[in-house]
Design brief:
Histidine-containing Protein, Chain: A, single chain, four-stranded antiparallel sheet, 4 strands, 3 helices
Length: about 110
């Protein structure tokens, strides 16, 4: 896959509470820790997947379909992790460690 190829996945929001704060925070955790830009779209509204408050503005309720989109080789992996997260009703334990932990900071020094 080329660096600039767009990858999309469709997900359906499950659960009576829809996309609530805990769910939005879990999505943002995965996206931030991956270190790439992922967007979520509902209808004509598109938001950053790394910002929980933006995700909440989608007002996604049970049964709503969202489009997850990213660019590049890592996007495919991150989107698959997000699909698993949606299917598990936002249980972060189902997401592989690669997107659960923040990327290491370059220049960090060990004690």
């Amino acid at each position: 896959m080329s660096e600039d190829q767009r990858v999309q996945r469709r997900v359906v929001v499950e659960g009576m509470d829809g996309l609530h704060l805990r769910a939005a925070s879990a999505i943002a955790t995965v996206v931030r820790n991956a270190g790439i830009e992922i967007t979520l779209t509902k209808g004509d509204q598109k938001v950053s997947g790394s910002e929980p408050l933006q995700i909440l503005t989608l007002c996604a309720m049970e049964g709503d379909e969202l489009i997850l989109e990213g660019v590049g080789e890592l996007a495919e992996k991150v989107l698959e992790d997000l699909v698993c997260l949606f299917r598990s009703k936002f249980d972060l334990s189902v997401v592989p460690a690669v997107t659960q932990q923040p990327p290491s900071q370059s220049g960090e020094q060990s004690a």
